[in-house]
Amino acid sequence: MTGQLSPSVFAQAKTASGFRDAILFYLRAHLARTPKGASLRDWWMATALAVRDRIVERLLRTQDAYKRRRVRSLYYLSMEYFPGKLLKSYLASEGLLETAAEALETLGLDLDRLSEEERDMGLGNGGLGRLAWCLMESLATLGYPAIGYGIYYEFGAFRQRFENGHQIEEPDEWRERGDPWTILRPSRSHKVPLYGRLEQGQQTRNSRWVHTKEIIGIGHDLPVPGHRNPTVNFVRLWSSHPPEELDLEAFNQGGYFEAVREKTFCETISKILYPNDKTESGKELRLVQQYFFVSCSLQDILRRFRRLHEEWEVLPDVATIQLNDTHPALAVAELMRLLVDREGVSWEKAWQITTRTFAYTNHTLLPEALEKWSVPLFEKVLPRHLEIIYEINHHFLQEVEKRWPGVVERKRNLSLIEEGSPKMVRMAHLAVLGSFAVNGVSALHSRLLCDRLFRDFHLMFPERFHNKTNGISPRSWLLLANPPLAKVITAAIGDRWVHDLEELRQLEGLLEDPGFQEAFWKAKEQNKKELAKLIGRLCGVRVDEHATVDVQIKRIHEYKRQHLNLLHIVALYRKLLENPDYLPHPVLILFAGKAAPGYEIAKCIIKAIHAVAHKIERDPRVREKLRVVFLPDYGVSLAQKIIPAAEISEQISTAGREASGTGNMKLALNGAVTLGTWDGANIEIAEEVGQENLFLFGLRAERIAELIQEGYSPWDVYGKNPPLREALDWLTLSPDFLPGEPADRLVPLRETLLEKGDPFFVMADFDAYAQTREEAFRVYVDRKSWITKSLLHVARIGKFSSDRTVQEYVQHIWRLRPVSLSALRT
Fold first, then answer.
1. Which helix (DSSP H) or strand (DSSP E) does residue 237 occupy?
2. Is residue 594 part of a domain?
3. pLDDT digits (tens, 9 = 90+) for 734-785
4. How far apart (Å, rounded) are the C-alpha atoms in residues 157 and 407?
5. Residue 535, domain extent
C-alpha cells in the first residue's frame, strides 16, 4: 500500500503494518521517492514525518484545550535548546519504539542505523540548552501548559574537529539533511525595530523612537510531546527576515549588491548560535540577536494574551515569563516599551505588571558570564531601551537612598549602570530588579548568590530569592540513552521509574542479589564494548574494552579544570615509567568538549591533552595500562553514547564556580561513580548517595575565599610539591610532548598556573586530587565494592529528575495547574 494512505487514517494506526504504510506514504507523497530509489536519508525523513503526524494531532488538540480553558501558562525564554536527535525520542513519547523498529525491519531497515542519519539540532551548545529541553520535556510529561521561545539558528555553534591536536571550527549545517520536526508559522510574524533615534516628549518616559530599521521574525514551532501522555507543548523559534526580500528599484538601477544588502543583514541575525563577541561588530550582532529574540517573543505573548483578555493588569495572573540566564534580560525593558509606548499603559502600572510577570534563573557566578553592554553600543542599537533602563534605575536608586541614606557604596553596587569608561549596562541587575523571583540552580550556588553576587539585592528583596536545583529527564538520559541498563532496571522493579525516578530506591534491596549484580555489571560491560567501537571509528585508536572508563565530558573551561586532570595524567605517566605495575587495572581517560572560538587558554588545554595522548599512545611501556582519548564534536548524541559506558565521573570544577552541573546527574544516573569537588550539585548528590560512595576532595568554597584574602601563591605550592613541579615542567618546558613544534606552544598553560596566579586553584588542589583519584583506581578492582557504589548512585539519584525540578518551580514560582487531557488519547 504505497501513496494511498491518508495521514488522518495513520493518526489512528498503532501497528507495525500501519506504521510501515505510513512510512511508504510519506516516502512517495512528500519526498517523491520509490522504495527502490530511496536513500537512507529519505527513509529517515519519511519515518520522521510519519511519527510527527501523530504528534501534530496531539499538539492541535492540546493547544485547543488550553485556549478553551483559558489556562495560566509559562513562557520560557532561552537562547538555547539542545534536544539532540528527536526520532527515537518522539517514537518513545508515542510508545512506538518497538513498533517502528518492527515496521522498518519489514522494509529491510534498522532503526538504530536510520537514527544515525539525523543530526543534533543546532539550537544549543551546552548545559544551558540541555537543561532547557529537559524542563520543557518534563512540563509536557507532567501536563503543564508551557511555551518555550528561542531562535531558529541556521547554523549551530560550530562542528569541532582536530588537526594536529588543534581545535578546528567548521560550520554546523545541522539542517543540511532537512528538518522534519519544526512547523513553519508565517502567520506568526512580528516586526522588530532597531537603531534609529529618539524624539523627546515632555517627559523622558514619553519619548518617541523614530527612523528605525525593521526586521521581521517568523515563527517555527518545534513540538515537545509529553512521554506516553496526550500533552504536546511547543517551542517557538524565530528566524529573521527583511521587510522586503529584494529592493527592486535598486536592482533595476544596477545596484545588485545594494539590492540584497538589507536581506543579508537581516538574515544574519538568526544565522548562528553565539557569534564570536571578541570584536565590536560581534558584540553588536549578539546584542541585536538577543533583542530580536525577546521582542518577537514578547509580542507573541502579548498577542496570545489579548485573544482572551482585555485588561493588562491581569497579565501576571495568567502568565509567568521565565528568563533562562541573562541572555533574555532585555525582555524587562522591552515589556516596558511595549506596554508604555504601544499600549498606552502608564509607567507606574507597566512597571507593576512587569515585576509581577518575570522570573529569572541565574546560571553562573563567573563575572565574565554576567552580560554587560557598553552604554555607547546600547545607545546606538536600542536608544529607547537605554532611556527606559535609565528611568528604571533613577527610581530604583531613590528607593535605595530611602533604605540606606547616604550610603553611596550601596548605590554603586545596586545600580543598573556600572560606572567606568565606557559605562556598562548590567543585564543581571536588570533581570533581578525586573523579576518577582530569582533562583539559583543548586543549594551552594543559590547561597552564594545571596551572600556574594547579589548580596545587596538579597538584603533589599530577600523574599525574591529561591533555590531550584537542576534536574535531568529520565526518559532522555536513561530510558533512551542506556537501553541495556534500562531493561535490567525494569525487569527488576517495573517501569514506574520512567515517570517517578524515586522508584529507583527499590534497587537498594537488590544490593546483595548476585543475579542482579551480574546483570548490572554486564549492562555496563556491553556499553563499554560499544564505546570502544565508537572510539575506534572516530579516533582510529584501539582501546581495551575492559579498562576502567574515566570521563570528563563538558565545555573546555579553566574553572572546569581539564588541566588539573591533565597534570595528574602526566604525573601518572611518570610513575608508570618508574613502576609499570603502579596502576592496579588498565585505565581509559576520556575527554570530550568544545572550547569557545576566542578562548585561547581553553584551546591550549585541548592541544596539551592531545599532545599527552599522542605520546602515551606511542609508548609501549605504558599504553596497555593508561590510554587518553579526546573524542571530537561533543554534543547530546555523543554524550548519550559515552555516559552509559562511564565508570568514573570527573566533576572537578573549582569549588564555588560551577552553578550546578547536570552532567554529574546524568553520569550518576547511569552508574558512574562521582569523583568531584565540593561544588555545585556534587554536594547534593553526596547528601543523597552518601559521601562514602563518592570520591570527594579539595578546597571548599569558604576556604578558597579565605585564600584569596590571605594572598594565595601558586609558586609556593610549586616549590613544595615535587610531583606537581616535575609534571608541569615536563609538560610545558620539555620538547618531549611536541617534537618538531615551537618550544613555547604550551607556555600559556604554564603562565596561567604560575605567573597569572592560578585563578582556579589547580595547583592548590593537585595533591588531594591525585590521592583521591588513585584511591578510586584501587577501589575499582574490588568488584563488589565498586558495584555497590555504582548501584547506589543509580538508586539514590531520584531527586535529580527534571520532573522534581519542574514541580518545585510550579509550586513556588510558576503557579501552574496540570491540564488533564486523558480524553485526547489516540
1. strand 232-241
2. yes
3. 999 999 999 889 999 999 999 999 999 999 999 999 999 999 999 999 999 9
4. 44
5. 474-698+768-800
Q: Among all residues, which ones are annotated catalytic?
A: 363, 554-555, 560, 662, 666
The pLDDT value given to residue 265:
87
246 and 366 together in one domain = yes
Question: Do 659 and 445 form a contact (C-beta atoms < 8 A)?
Answer: yes
Q: For every residue of 52-93, which 3-state class applies, written as one string?
A: HHHHHHHHHHHHHHHHHHCCCEEEEECCCCCCCCCHHHHHHH
The tens digit of pLDDT for each residue in 475-496 reads 999 999 999 999 999 999 999 9
- Specify the higher pLDDT residue, 251 or 780: 780
Q: Which residues contact 183 (CB under 8 A, 6 or more apart)?
A: 56, 220, 221, 222, 223
Average pLDDT, stretch 241-250? Answer: 70
C-beta atoms surrounding 110 within 10 Å: 13
Q: Is 609 within 8 Å of 591 (Cβ atoms)?
A: yes
Q: Is the confidence at residue 250, as pLDDT, over 80?
A: no
756 near 558, Cβ under 8 Å? no
Average pLDDT, the chain: 94
Furthest C-alpha separation in the chain = 84
Q: Phi and psi dihedrals of 166, rounded to 5?
A: -95, 140
Asked whether the beta carbons of 765 and 753 are under 8 A apart, the reply is no
C-alpha dihedral, 282 to 285 to 291 to 297, nearest 10°:
-110
CATH value at residue 366:
3.40.50.2000
Judged on CB neighbours under 10 Å (0-12, 13-18, 19+), 526 is middle
User: Do the Cβ atoms of 675 and 776 come closer than 8 Å?
Assistant: yes
Say which residues have a Cβ less than 8 Å from residue 141's Cβ, sequence separation at least 6. Answer: 226, 227, 229, 231, 475, 499, 803
* Total count of domains within the chain: 3
Residue 504 lies in a domain: yes
Residue 648 and residue 535 share a domain? yes
Which set of grid coordinates corresponds to residue 726? 616535575
Residue 115 within a domain: no
The helix (H) or strand (E) run that includes residue 236 is strand 232-241
Assess contact for 450 and 443: CB atoms under 8 A: no
For residues 235 and 81, is the Cβ–Cβ distance under 8 A?
yes
Note whether 136 and 8 are same-domain residues. Answer: no
Q: Rounded to 5 degrees, what angle do the CA atoms 488, 489, 494 make?
A: 120
d(CA 127, CA 178): 25
Share of the chain above pLDDT 70, in %: 95
204 — pLDDT class (breaks 50, 70, 90): low
In the predicted model, is pLDDT for residue 674 greater than 60? yes
Q: In which residue are the cell numbers 530599521 written?
A: 213
Q: What is the pLDDT of residues 22-49, one digit of tens each?
A: 999 999 999 999 999 999 999 999 999 9
What are the grid coordinates assigned to 364, written together?
553562573
**What CA–CA distance (Å, rounded) separates 563 from 154?**
33
The rounded distance, in Å, linking the Cα atoms of 618 and 266 is: 51
User: Looking at the structure, do residues 608 and 572 belong to the same domain, yes or no?
Assistant: yes
| Prediction pTM value | 0.96
Mean pLDDT score, 655-669: 96
CA distances from 799 to 160, 364, 508, 686 (A): 34, 22, 15, 12
Contact 160, 594 (CB under 8 A): yes
The answer for residues whose C-beta is within 8 angstroms of residue 163's C-beta and 6 or more apart is none
Query: Which residue bears the cell 537498594?
Result: 508
